[in-house]
Amino acid sequence: MKLHEKHVVRLFGVLTVVVALLLTPGLSPTRSAYAKDKVVSQESSKLLGKFSDALAEVAEVARPAVVNISTTSTVTMEDNPFGNMFNDPFFRHFFGDQFDHGQKRKFKSSALGSGVIISADGYILTNNHVVKGADEIKVILYDKREFKGKIVGTDPRTDLAVVKIQAKDLPTIKIGQSSKLKTGDIVLAIGNPFGLNQTITMGIVSAVGRSNIGLADFEDFIQTDAAINPGNSGGPLLNWHGEVIGINTMIASSVGQSAGIGFAIPINTAKAVLNDLVTLGRVRRPALGVRTMEIGPELANQMGLAADYGLLIVQVVPGGSADRAGLRGGNERAYLGNIPIMLGGDLIVAIDGQDVQDQQSLSQIMNSHRAGDTVRVTIYRGKRKMDINVSLGEAREQV
């Protein structure tokens, strides 16, 4: 019995020591496990730090050239509780003009947008819809200085406009090449969404060459998921060199706020419009001076063409750019269904090395040029491939 008691005492002592160790701070198994918490590796931290510093540098280079544009315009509304109901001839026949007592009232409307300084002497590129119908334009610079803006020219067909302020030695932005953009490229958007000045968002190029959006006559948009909201319109979309490669224009959203689908006008298109607006106050549309028909693989096979894509010239405008350069239209009448067409013309497959797949791609290439520019047109004349230089004329109705 005494031996048993000794063992009990000894066991109790051992348990006491174990419990004491478990309760000692820093010595419990749970605490010991946390003592080896995972940490971000030095290599990862260094890489992410460099990426963060690079983005901050890009933003810092471009921000001084981004401006806030606020406009005031006069809106006329008819103060009539019945709206236009009694303007209907049916009601006028029975009631005459007794209900036509509506008065037109004028109201002041304000709007916000953005812009980017493209010359040190005060020329600013923005969207046409930002300044459209404005009675007054106020431009606020990065350093908080305010100037009165004057519209130099607008181009509703591309939704671009140029505004001028009386200032000198302004910071300007570098202009890049939107034609070099690829899907997946990192981009930054800078603007004044909801009046929050100098807001910067980041995303990627979701797609290029977007059309049929319904905003402008000439559409060749860059699509991005960088957050764009009301007030961003007219601000720059930047590449990682800090160069503007697009002018932020609109969003696709059912609620009027960013849903991850925004659109920007390629800077190559904007440059062509910008030069004309500054020098002429209007835009001269470039034209090849041809009428064409789209060619696909099936039609190309039926016609025995040398390429299964491109635009077949069915008519050359007499005296136009293509005619002077020696491009040839169709000389053989045929029928596509019930539609008479002229066959045998040159087949355009590229311009300046860019493939011409359809009318949309031709329009996109034309939008990046001005009247008077010379382009290299790659054609098939029969089975023979040729390059012909064409000096672009000014568009009327022809492409």
Radius of gyration: 33 Å
What is the percentage of strand-forming residues?
35-45%
Mean pLDDT: 82
Oligomer: single chain
Output the CATH topology of the domain at 286-394: Pdz3 Domain
Number of helices: 9
What is the spatial order of strands in the main beta sheet?
5-4-1-2-3-7-6
How far do the termini sit from each other?
114 Å
| Fourth-tier CATH superfamily name of the domain at 286-394 | PDZ domain
CATH architecture of the domain at 286-394: Roll
Brief account:
The protein has 399 residues and is an alpha+beta fold. It contains nine helices and 24 strands.
Descriptive account of the structure:
Helices cover 24% and strands 36% of the residues. With 399 residues, the protein is of the alpha+beta class. Among the domains are: 174-279, Thrombin, subunit H (Beta Barrel); 286-394, Pdz3 Domain. Strands 5-4-1-2-3-7-6 form a seven-stranded antiparallel sheet. A six-stranded antiparallel barrel has the order 9-10-11-14-13-12. Strands 16, 17, 20, 21, 22 and 23 form a six-stranded antiparallel sheet that branches. The radius of gyration is 33 Å and the shape is globular.
Secondary structure topology:
Elements: H1 2-23, H2 29-34, H3 42-62, E1 66-79, H4 89-95, E2 103-117, E3 123-126, H5 128-131, E4 136-140, E5 146-148, E6 150-155, E7 160-164, E8 174-175, E9 186-191, E10 199-210, E11 221-224, E12 236-238, E13 243-251, E14 262-266, H6 267-279, E15 286-287, E16 290-295, H7 297-303, E17 310-316, H8 321-325, E18 332-336, E19 339-343, E20 347-351, E21 354-355, H9 359-367, E22 374-381, E23 384-391, E24 393-394
Parallel strand pairs: 8-13
Antiparallel strand pairs: 1-2, 1-4, 2-3, 3-7, 4-5, 6-7, 9-10, 9-12, 10-11, 11-14, 12-13, 13-14, 15-24, 16-17, 17-20, 18-19, 20-21, 20-22, 22-23
